[in-house]
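Hi L., both proteins are below.
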Amino acid sequence: MINTNTKNKTKMAKELGVSRSSLYYHSKRSEIDLEVKNQIESVMTGHPAYGHKRVALELKLNKKRIRRVMKKFNLKPYRKKARLLIKKADLNKPATEFPNLIENLAIDHPHQAWCTDFTYIKFGVSSSTWRRSSTDAPERLSALTSPVFTTAS
């Protein structure tokens, strides 16, 4: 007895909207990538902080290829975590000497509380500027004002 539920590959490819030859396609890239991954891991065992550029120089391969394989297999170089810097002069001191006057205040309409900030911006070697920004707390509308003053060293 003949099974009528079976479909030939031509009809299956047509239903999927692909060419029949793509049903036979087998990528060789994954095998090559595994080989490159093993080479990268061998380099990174000796030099754990090497990124894709140094690994590429070590293996004499293209850096884009190395970066693609490292991303594919989630290979990341060792990076030191940044330490939180605490000044020794600030140890064992209260957080601030100024009280927060609006800590328990319910801000429900504009112009009730404002936030300001002064920022020092350095341009190149010889010039710098101070910028002041003011924000209305409930609306979160920031108005960046012109420089307060500019210095040239």
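That was the first. Here is the second:
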Amino acid sequence: MLYVLWDHLKNWLDDRGISWMFMILEQRSFRALAAAALAFAIVIVLGKPVIGWLRRKKIGDAGLADTAVLADISKSKANVPTMGGVLICGAILASTVLLADVRNFYVVVGIVVLVWLAALGSIDDWLKLTAASRPGGSRQGLYAWEKLVFQLGLGLLVGWFVYHKGSPAGVEQSLSHVLSLPLQPTYLGGDASLLQVNPGLFYLPAAGFIVLSVLMVAGMSNAVNITDGMDGLAAGTTTIVALGLTVLVYIAGWDLAAKGLPAGEAYAFFRNKLGQDLVVLSDTDFGYFAEHATLVEPHVRINSETGTADDGGLFYTENLPPEALLLAPLMASATRNGRTEGQLHAAEVLSQLKAVMHNRMIQIGGDATTGRGLVVASVVEG
């Protein structure tokens, strides 16, 4: 909500010169970290009071299970406060609603999944807690088939809406529907095209996409439920997965640094910096950065006859930082000169272009006299 409020009011705040106080909300990385910190803080601050309240209300686990083996393992959980998931889910929900862009379709889907499964868990716990006060109160929560109905139903809804969200009008095969397989690249490099979609990709039909979504939602829900029931292992497994993803992102950054800059000691500093300090910006963040956060330098135009500053000759230029890495697709078609002889195919055009600019320093723009616009161009295939 804070981001949406900022987005609606930023022009008004900018007119009054106070937008700088809130523009950090534009940074998605800041909002993600702030949301995680806020959720953690909510659990820390409210954890003891909520657990104490649950104990006073005698809202605790009975230590029962459906099988004798599980019941023996679960004896140690007797009288342990239950329904603590309400605190965790509430903290996640509050921080997400406060700091995420709630207009984003996928944020809304995530909130629906969170609330749906939290409600399902609450009903399950409530049936356990009120078993003694109900006629024939031997029932320990929801039956397995009842839980599966709600989990499979949620997966069905999520799969349906996400599939159709990723189906742009007029596009036969959307990359949003690709089944990603290990060691299978999405794009293939080659002489004919530097951004050629792999023809071997497997596009899931609607039925297959929805079935896979159902299995993922129900499987993940039960996997977390089982590990959490075994002395709180869910937090540990989640941390391991998060660390693994962090390592993969780190490796990807170093791979980009190796491909984006030429070899040799002259570029060692920038290769190391790119590998360590890579920041990937969305279009929204980059647009704001380009408008408000580029390097501004004053210049004075000198009169060539008098050797002094011209009247009104003060001007400013905006430049990207020297460490900026710009990426763009490079495409070509066959030459069109009106003659059949001497034409070059697209592959030959790209080959000649690569020979001219690959790993070379070139000057872009009209600021050559001020030493600006010097870039190192690298053509990366694949």
